From TrEMBL:
<dbReference type="InterPro" id="IPR007320">
    <property type="entry name" value="PDCD2_C"/>
</dbReference>
<dbReference type="GO" id="GO:0006915">
    <property type="term" value="P:apoptotic process"/>
</dbReference>
<dbReference type="InterPro" id="IPR052815">
    <property type="entry name" value="PDCD2-like_regulator"/>
</dbReference>
<protein>
    <recommendedName>
        <fullName>Programmed cell death protein 2 C-terminal domain-containing protein</fullName>
    </recommendedName>
</protein>
<feature type="domain" description="Programmed cell death protein 2 C-terminal">
    <location>
        <begin position="226"/>
        <end position="331"/>
    </location>
</feature>
<dbReference type="Pfam" id="PF04194">
    <property type="entry name" value="PDCD2_C"/>
</dbReference>
<dbReference type="GO" id="GO:0005737">
    <property type="term" value="C:cytoplasm"/>
</dbReference>
<feature type="region of interest" description="Disordered">
    <location>
        <begin position="122"/>
        <end position="142"/>
    </location>
</feature>
<feature type="compositionally biased region" description="Acidic residues">
    <location>
        <begin position="127"/>
        <end position="136"/>
    </location>
</feature>
Amino acid sequence: MAHASALVLLGFVDQPIPDESKVEWHTNKIGGKPSFPESIDDGMLINLINDQLICRKCSSMCSLICQIQCSVDESPAFRVIYVFACLQEKCNYFAVTRLMHESQSSVGNQITTHSKHHQIWDTSGWSDDEDNENGEDSNNLFSSSEINRLENSKDTNWKCKFLPKSFDNSLNFKPYYINVENIDDLKSSKLYLTKKELKYCQDEPLTNEDGEKYENPELSTIFGNDKIAYKFYKKLRDFPKQVIRYSWQGQPLLNRSNLNYAIEACENCGSSRKFEFQLMPALISKLNFPPSPSSQSSVDLNYGTVLIYTCSNNCDSKALSEEKCIFLEEVDENVINKK
């Protein structure tokens, strides 16, 4: 049964990262190069490339879409999820990797969910501004003084390693920090309440046969046959700049009804995989290449949403474990209205 009260966190694009080599390897970010702990073996990274990062449809090298640190139990190990994608036209190939890395400094800067035994996402550097629903103008995760402190510290656990240069992908997006907000905090903020008040000042909404209320006749025409698609639309409109929606063992937000897919059990331990987070449509417009004569200017990456499922047991028998994702296409009006 789904966890109805599962915590929901929204990720928004924050400030650009000027130098990825000078921030902690487990930094939450979109784009850039995948960063790993300095102590990880090169052979392990090469195996990762060969096993997962070569597109199984066209054999192109995949690019990093995002990486997030997200602890879900009391393990002292760093837990980082990496999402990669092939950028070749119409491939729609995604790969997900879960890293478990033991470190003496693994614990700290995390928040707890409704269950005191579960912890979600590293909170260091998150914005404290309740009105900042779009993740704009918040503090960078690391200031210049913090970078200097890290560089001068004897502790090298923060230092990062990238993929071997011989395998380095030149198609790396411009890196940005991810700012994370609890959706309940956003809903209680003055900005959100103002938006809701304006919403309910409109004319009396229409209601479809399932009791789902529509706010104008146009929406009734578009979504009349699919209340799941309408719910997805409403959740996007509430916070249109959300790029990641996180809810460990919660409910994924589907973009249409009548979806049938199966999630395989974990290959390492046999435990079931549970939903963890999903990529939202607004992320696509934030994935841009740095200015370069040799760099392509556009991204051939389109989706309705991408669902990420991970081992419910959070097994750590392997440092790098392949996880599963479900690619859902964009839904146009013709699909929505198809009976």
